Amino acid sequence: MATEEEILARLRPGCICKGIRLHTIITAINQGAASFQEVAGKTGIGGGSCGSKRCGLKVVELLSQKKSGPAPPPAPATDSPARPSPDGAQTENSARNNE
After folding, report:
1. Which of 46, 71, 85, 87 would you call most buried, defined as having the most Cβ atoms within 10 angstroms of its Cβ?
2. Is pTM beyond 0.85 here?
3. What is the DSSP letter of 52?
């Protein structure tokens, strides 16, 4: 079953000028397109009357989200958990655990 986000992506515009849905752009990125040119080649976006201003910004946003990715899973529990000090610096235990 599709998530609400997937359903909305099928309805939202990705490239208004060419009538291409956001889902098509997301699929291209998930299949390995890593630049606007690659996404455009796979989807047909760009080159419309706006000069790729609208879809170009959306592609840049989606690519940066893909690169940053989801938060990594939490580390397994240890005897002495790595904890940053209140000022944000690593404590001796956290530095040792990160080696």
Report:
1. 46
2. no
3. T
In a domain, 92, yes or no: no
Is 20 within 8 Å of 50 (Cβ atoms)?
A: no
What is the maximal distance between C-alpha atoms in the chain?
61
Q: Are 55 and 15 in contact (CB under 8 A)?
A: yes
> Would you say how long the chain is, in residues?
99
Residue 29: closest CA among 39, 40, 16:
39
Residue 45 lies in domain: 4-67
The pLDDT tens digits of the residues spanning 16-33 come to: 999 999 999 999 999 999
Tracing tokens 């299949």 back to the chain, one arrives at 31
Beta bridge partners of 21: 13
